[in-house]
């Protein structure tokens, strides 16, 4: 077999090593345009888990790499005169040049041919080659040459960064957040060998310009950074090597394979430097390719196996990198945070590290986090324990005069089980059991303000006395048997009305028994959906009156809180989104105009709702579709509702149009809550694939939301909050009939948690930093 590898970086060299080990008789040649010892940048970083992989696939190169590595266990966050150190991370750094030389030497040992200063720009010269590996880096000629086939999407990020080095020794992966007269600068720094450390400097475009960095050469830029960070550099110089300021390109390719050519490493996909995964991804691509070549019957099958098998892991890493880079791009959102909360946000920004994870690794740090959160709660008038504070999930919150005992919320979830809008015994059990289960706040499903406002025939309503009586029964039960508060969510389906029950075909139009629908514009949801009537002034006044009438009924029912549903493509959301609002009157066009009617409705409801009780609004922070609403729009929407008297913004996303392309994942909507909360400066509730109490604590402690709503976890476990309270040792209210069960689970959880933590600690392999420290300890005297 004949294999050509274009690009002599870590991806290309490691692929050559692994493929040659598999096929000793194969003719493998690596073509590199630069000299053998040329390299740009300074150090690379790997986790212990990545090194475990290297040890498995090629022990000789692994041993040489680890002999050259600098090890550290801590992450240090410097912010506003404080430093917080968090241990148990297991990172290793190595000179990029050293890594390349090690891989080159190992490749030669195996018989790989390495050709340097050899420029390849045409694959035609490899007509007799069985496999062509394109590992030619972030500016890949071949990816660009075949751009219509590979279809790369390049997202040039807004922040500016420059990669430099220093002689400053470091004993931790170090983040420095530096305030300057021009704005914030960030340094990501780590040691990679004795007397050498990598320094990546980052700032936003506006600060970059104000600092006068535009037009400076490498040395002048280094001098400016040395001035800014001189207090930490302690006299050590900054070193340069192609250290030009640039914007990071996030690259995703629709295809990785063309014939017998395959993209590897940065040529195929990039991951932002803030999670330190670029070289890791490149070398793990080589591992995946080698595995595929070993298992598949031929090259074509192997390349398909590689692409399909590897893509998910790459996309997961890229998603984590996306979340991380956005945090750094918007660091100004968190600049007024308490330093310990800020440090917690740094640690948990990419979702891989969580509250519970840090509790195991850095318990003292998490105790500081808990105390800082409790201080914020006390500043709001609550007499909470500061010495032994509860976890954030179990701290109280006040909205106007309503106090919730904890931050866990039962999300509004349509049950589609009402009869002509009347809640049934099913609803009594559904809401009652979840209130008894310990949640601080219960939301009703979207309750419709009129018969023709329903989504489906099974939706609840609040437009007549029978419905009001049924809801009153539920509210009275919740108040009599639990400490939970209950919020009424009111809405109008708009163009998504007259549809089937969820399990019969969600959002599909009824075949019989339907009703007329209305919307901001006459646009059907599906092509075969009913075309809604565009609302005129009379219809708008009528619907507003329906919302006010339902609000007054909600007052009579005794609800503690009221929410206006303005999300998910329903009636009021159809005014807000430009994808569903094509009006040319004063209710269309600009965002301010599109918001006009939803605000009219909200203000009328606010006037009818008791002043001492809070109101919230649910919004879709993004439509997940080109030309639709964005996170920045959500901030403007939240500010407008805040000025109108809203107390909480319930931040959801999407469901506006059928061709939306949401990016799912754990806590996938939380970044929008984060943006709205910390830019619009309003209290928020986040929702969306949040499944554990650990995630709830992580979100709250990092300042990304004030309440956390969970849907599906509550469907299968009405006592979700009670179980979490037992786990974290935080008391919650419980009816006397259930006290024996509560007492048992609280007793058992003390032992169960200790057993779990012991198992996690025992099962966690020691980091290489710990192993190295043990190996260098002097033997105890006999």
Automatic annotation (TrEMBL):
The domain of life is Bacteria
Please name the GO terms that the record assigns under molecular function.
Answer: FAD binding; FMN binding; NADP binding; NADPH dehydrogenase activity
Q: What is this protein called?
A: Salicylyl-CoA 5-hydroxylase
Which organism's genome codes for this protein? Bradyrhizobium jicamae
Question: Which is one Pfam family of this protein?
Answer: FAD_binding_3
Instruction: Cite the NADH:flavin oxidoreductase/NADH oxidase N-terminal domain residue spans from the record.
Output: 393-725
Entry-linked SUPFAM superfamilies: FAD/NAD(P)-binding domain (SSF51905), FMN-linked oxidoreductases (SSF51395)
Q: Supply the InterPro entries for this chain.
A: Aldolase_TIM, FAD-bd, FAD/NAD-bd_sf, OxRdtase_FMN_N, YqjM-like
Question: Where is the FAD-binding domain positioned along the sequence?
Answer: 2-317
Q: Which Gene3D superfamilies match?
A: 3.30.9.20, Aldolase class I, FAD/NAD(P)-binding domain
């Amino acid at each position: 077999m004949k294999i050509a590898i274009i690009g002599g970086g870590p991806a290309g060299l490691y692929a050559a090593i692994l493929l040659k080990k598999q096929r000793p008789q194969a003719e493998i040649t690596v073509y590199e345009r630069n000299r053998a010892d040329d390299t740009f940048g300074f150090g690379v970083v790997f986790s212990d888990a990545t090194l475990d992989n290297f040890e498995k696939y090629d022990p000789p190169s692994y041993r040489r790499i680890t002999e050259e590595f600098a090890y550290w266990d801590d992450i240090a966050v410097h912010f506003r005169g404080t430093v917080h150190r968090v241990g148990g991370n297991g990172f290793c750094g190595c000179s990029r040049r050293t890594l390349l030389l090690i891989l080159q030497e190992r490749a030669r040992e195996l018989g790989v041919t390495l050709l340097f200063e050899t420029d390849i720009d045409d694959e035609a010269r490899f007509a007799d080659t069985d496999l062509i590996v394109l590992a030619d880096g972030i500016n890949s000629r071949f990816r660009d040459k075949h751009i219509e086939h590979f279809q790369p999407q390049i997202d040039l990020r807004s922040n500016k960064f420059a990669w430099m080095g220093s002689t400053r020794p470091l004993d931790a992966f170090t983040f420095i957040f530096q305030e300057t007269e021009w704005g914030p600068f960030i340094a990501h720094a780590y040691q990679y060998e004795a007397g050498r450390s990598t320094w990546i400097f980052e700032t936003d475009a506006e600060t970059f310009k104000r600092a006068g960095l535009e037009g400076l050469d490498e040395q002048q830029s280094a001098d400016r950074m040395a001035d800014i960070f001189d207090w930490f550099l302690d006299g050590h110089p900054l070193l340069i090597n192609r250290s030009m300021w640039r914007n990071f390109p996030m690259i995703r390719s629709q295809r990785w394979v063309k014939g017998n050519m395959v993209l590897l490493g940065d040529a195929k996909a990039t991951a932002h430097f803030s999670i330190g995964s670029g070289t890791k991804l490149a070398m793990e691509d080589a591992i995946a390719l080698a595995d595929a070549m070993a298992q598949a019957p031929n090259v074509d099958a192997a390349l398909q196996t590689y692409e399909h098998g590897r893509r998910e892991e790459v996309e997961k890493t890229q998603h984590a990198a996306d979340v991380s880079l956005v945090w750094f791009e918007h660091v100004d959102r968190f600049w007024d945070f308490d330093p310990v909360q800020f440090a917690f946000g740094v640690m948990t920004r990419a979702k891989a590290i969580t509250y519970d994870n840090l509790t195991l690794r850095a318990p003292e740090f998490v105790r500081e986090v808990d105390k800082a959160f409790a201080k914020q709660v006390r500043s709001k008038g609550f007499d909470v324990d500061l010495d032994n504070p509860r976890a954030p999930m179990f701290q109280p919150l006040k909205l106007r005069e309503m106090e919730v005992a904890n931050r866990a919320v039962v999300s509004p979830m349509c049950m589609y089980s009402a009869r002509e809008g009347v809640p049934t015994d099913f609803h009594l059990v559904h809401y009652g059991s979840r209130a008894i289960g310990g949640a601080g706040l219960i939301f009703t499903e979207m309750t419709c303000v009129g018969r023709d406002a329903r989504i489906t025939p099974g939706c609840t309503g609040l437009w007549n006395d029978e419905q009001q009586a049924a809801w009153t029964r539920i509210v009275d039960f919740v108040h009599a048997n639990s400490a939970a508060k209950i919020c009424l969510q009111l809405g109008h389906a708009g163009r998504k009305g007259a549809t089937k029950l969820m399990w019969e075909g969600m959002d599909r139009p009824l075949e019989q028994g339907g009703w007329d629908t209305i919307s901001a514009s006459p646009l059907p949801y599906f092509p075969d959906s009913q075309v809604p009537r565009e609302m005129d002034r009379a219809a708008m006044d009528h619907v507003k009156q329906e919302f006010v009438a339902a609000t007054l009924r909600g007052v009579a029912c005794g609800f503690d809180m009221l929410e206006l549903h303005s999300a998910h493509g329903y009636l009021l959301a159809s005014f807000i989104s430009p994808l569903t609002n094509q009006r040319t009157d004063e209710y269309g066009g600009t965002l301010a105009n599109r918001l006009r009617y939803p605000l009219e409705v909200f203000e009328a409801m606010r006037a009818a709702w008791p002043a001492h009780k809070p109101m919230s609004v649910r919004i879709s922070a993004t439509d997940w579709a080109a030309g639709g609403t964005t996170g920045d729009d959500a901030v403007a929407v939240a500010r407008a509702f805040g000025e109108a008297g809203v107390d909480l913004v319930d931040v959801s996303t999407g469901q506006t149009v059928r061709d939306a392309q949401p990016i799912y994942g754990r806590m996938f909507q939380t970044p929008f809550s984060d943006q709205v909360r910390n830019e619009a400066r309003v209290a928020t509730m986040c929702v969306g694939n949040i499944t554990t109490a650990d995630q709830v604590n992580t979100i709250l402690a990092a300042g990304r939301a004030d309440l956390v709503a969970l849907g599906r976890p509550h469907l299968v476990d009405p006592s979700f909050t009670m179980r979490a309270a037992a786990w974290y040792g935080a008391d919650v209210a419980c009816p006397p009939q259930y006290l024996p069960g509560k007492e048992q689970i609280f007793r058992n959880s003390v032992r169960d948690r200790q057993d779990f933590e012991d198992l996690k600690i025992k099962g966690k392999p020691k980091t290489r930093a710990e192993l190295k420290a043990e190996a260098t300890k002097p033997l105890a005297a006999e």
